[in-house]
Hints:
Helices cover about 20% and strands about 35% of the residues. It is of the alpha/beta class. Helix 3 (about 110-120) links the parallel strand 6 (about 95-105) and strand 7 (about 125-135). Helix 1 (about 15-35) crosses helix 2 (about 50-60).
Amino acid sequence: xxxxxxxxxxxxxxxxxxxxxxxxxxxxxxxxxxxxxxxxxxxxxxxxxxxxxxxxxxxxxxxxxxxxxxxxxxxxxxxxxxxxxxxxxxxxxxxxxxxxxxxxxxxxxxxxxxxxxxxxxxxxxxxxxxxxxxxxxxxxxxxxxxxxxxxxxxxxxxxxxxxxxxxxxxxxxxxxxx
Length: 178
């Protein structure tokens, strides 16, 4: 892992690929244990979670399904705080166990809005799984059952996370160089 330049910013190594794989496997094992006998629907939030969701699903050992929802609340490196549902859910969620798969939870506002929206579709239960959590940034109380990494309030990219749509392809996670 070495420093990378994306557009006008430099990023330094933060979490190596092998650590990410270990934590994804551990989270998948916990989900497989907790959801035994169910057929959970993984609801991956695009674009950032697509790599995490794919790796997670491949490590889950019980039957499960996947669907995608696209939300937008970012511009460049800053969250706008204004969440817009861009691409909705086509599945019938009635009586389903739903696991929202997110790349990163910061303020929690997007997640709160998503849970409220899903609640109108009568799921049996809704669970949250995130690759990254910034606990010091949370503005709302959430029950986040599955967290791969808790991180400080730094700007990061790689492994699906981007800076202005760039850097998602990186296998490691990088942090903005101060």
